[in-house]
Design goal:
The complex is a heterotrimer. Chain A is mainly α. Chain A is about 85% helix and about 0% strand. The longest helix of chain A is centred in the middle third of the chain and has 41 residues. Chain B is mostly helical. In chain B, α7 runs antiparallel to α8. Chain B has one domain. By secondary structure, chain C is an all-alpha fold. Chain C has 2 domains: about 70 residues; about 150 residues. In chain C, about 80% of the residues lie in helices and about 0% in strands. The chains are: A mainly alpha, B mainly alpha, C mainly alpha. Chains in contact: A-C, B-C. The interface between A and C is medium-sized, with 29 and 39 residues.
Chain lengths: ~55, ~220, ~240
């Protein structure tokens, strides 16, 4: 396989790349949502405990 | 004991339908209306209507049942009697059975009586109407039981029929497939006894299992 | 038995266990994902019938398998949460739903993208495609019901019931759809079961990568939820102090 074949996927590029693109999008969006929520929760809990101690 | 409770509850249910005639006439009118919309949508072409007729009637029945399910347990829950039934374990099962039997009498039975006329409106032959009628007769207990299950699940959700449709329609697909293939096969002149037997078996399975699920779900719901 | 199971049941230990697991899972995930992608997209030979178009299999099949597996897992969690009143099981059940729905959606779209060059249409009412579509509706119904139910306790129990009912119905739906489909049209394209190893290993790696991704997301969401629910417990303070 060379780069040209890889890029065009033997003529199937309009079907193969969107599939992988959507998979990547699913993975990245799920990951970002999860990590974002975890970080925000940690921040909120930190302020909660700071206020609790003072 | 539980027999007489059942009879009292059934009488009570039937009376409630009798008191508000709209409760059973509106779904019936809805059933008729949905079927009558299709000739307009399909340009009243005889061949198209004939091929789609069984599907149209079944979808119309599904929709008209869907209209009545959100209120199935919700009214009793609002006035508080459902909580009473859930507190007494012996009352709950007769209550559920009476509820569903009354619903079958007052909603499905009128629809069944109306079906031959709808078949004629859609140019079905008498033989096809018989088969359609038979599939609705055998399939409607399944629709009713699964629908009551959905009504019990959405009792506390209070969102009306959109949520209920989302829950029920995936569960209705096997019945729809079985019943409508009966009609298709019969029209093609092939034997349908096997399919009708499957439909019966599915109905028996639902009758045997679903009431217990409804009982458990209602108990959670009214807590 | 109890000392072993506490790692899963007691929130504190559950959090610590997932904390320990996460780096390892991430490591294996990156490894299997990169192997699967490179071997699948570059080294695997083109299929003799489908050319390079078959490479969609490396996202489609894992997504479809995970769609089903996540739903089964949720159903098991539903049974555990109903029978043993396990809080963690109810959490696993509710937190899995969005990921499972995302996998199902991915399987549907990639199936459609695969169907266009191979069958000539974006969609056919093929038994498998239809079953996956119905599975997607089941996920949607579960999430819609959960968002509509106001109180947490009834929400967990009632949505668990819906999951179990849906799970019992899956085989009924699958077989009826399959039967309906064979009645209406001849057998559609069948995948050759004797798949070459150079194509199979990347596929297995991708399935592992999808499963691990699910585990990673689920564990992190579980951690977030546990921290929030147990926010008044001292162990949460320890965790926060460690992290900052």
């Amino acid at each position: 396989m060379n780069f040209h074949e890889f890029y065009t996927m033997g003529g199937y590029a309009p079907y193969v790349w969107p599939s992988f693109g959507l998979a990547a999008l699913t993975f990245i969006s799920q990951w970002l949502l999860t990590v974002h929520k975890k970080r925000r929760t940690l921040e909120r809990l930190k302020t909660f405990w700071d206020r609790h101690e003072s | 004991m539980s027999h007489s409770i059942f009879r009292t509850l059934l009488q009570h249910e039937l009376k409630s339908y009798y008191r508000q005639a709209a409760k059973c006439l509106t779904p019936l009118a809805f059933y008729l209306l949905v079927v009558c919309l299709f000739p307009f949508a399909l340009n009243a072409e005889k061949t198209v209507l004939q091929t789609c007729a069984a599907g149209i009637v079944w979808i119309a029945l599904l929709l008209s049942l869907l209209m009545s399910f959100p209120r199935l347990f919700a009214d009793d829950h609002q006035e508080g009697s459902l909580t009473q039934y859930c507190l007494q374990d012996t009352m709950l099962m007769p209550y559920i059975s009476a509820k569903m039997l009354a619903h079958a009498f007052m909603h499905i039975l009128p629809c069944l009586l109306l079906t031959p006329i709808l078949g004629l409106l859609l140019y079905l032959s008498v033989r096809d109407i018989e088969i359609l009628w038979l599939t609705i007769l055998l399939g409607s207990p399944i629709l009713l039981l699964i629908g009551s299950l959905g009504a019990a699940l959405t009792l506390r959700a209070g969102q009306g029929s959109a949520l209920l449709a989302l829950i029920l329609f995936p569960l209705y697909i096997p019945v729809l497939i079985l019943a409508l293939n009966c009609v298709t096969l019969a029209t093609a002149g092939r034997p349908i006894a096997g399919l009708l037997a499957w439909l019966c078996a599915y109905a028996c399975l639902c009758i045997a299992l679903i009431p217990f699920a409804i009982k458990a779900i209602l108990k959670i719901g009214v807590q | 038995m109890l000392s072993w199971s506490k790692h899963f049941l007691v929130p504190k230990y559950c959090y610590r266990l997932s904390e320990k697991l996460l780096p390892w899972l991430t490591f294996v995930w990156i490894l299997s994902l990169s192997y699967g992608l490179i071997a699948g997209l570059w080294f695997a030979p083109a299929d003799y019938q489908q050319g390079d178009g078959f490479r969609i299999i490396y996202v489609h099949v894992p997504a479809a398998i995970m769609a089903m597996a996540v739903y089964s897992l949720m159903a098991i969690a539903a049974v555990l949460s109903l029978v043993f009143r396990l809080k963690i099981a109810a959490l696993v059940m509710s937190l899995s739903a969005p990921i499972g729905a995302a996998f199902t959606f991915l399987a549907l779209v990639t199936g459609s993208l695969w169907g266009k060059p191979m069958w000539g249409t974006w969609w056919i009412w093929d038994a498998r495609l239809t079953s996956v579509l119905i599975l997607f509706f089941l996920y949607l119904a579960f999430m819609a019901l959960r968002s509509a139910l106001p109180e947490e306790k009834t929400r967990d129990q009632i949505s668990a019931w819906l999951l179990i009912i849906g799970f019992i119905n899956i085989p009924i739906i699958h077989y009826s759809v399959q039967w309906w489909n064979t009645l209406h049209q001849g057998a559609s394209l069948k995948w050759d079961p004797s798949i070459a190893p150079s194509m199979l290993y990347p596929l297995l790696a991708m399935i592992l990568a999808f499963a691990l991704f699910y585990a990673l997301i689920l564990l992190q969401r579980l951690q977030t939820e546990l921290l929030y629910r147990e926010r008044k417990n001292p162990w949460v303070k320890e965790v926060i102090d460690e992290l900052s």
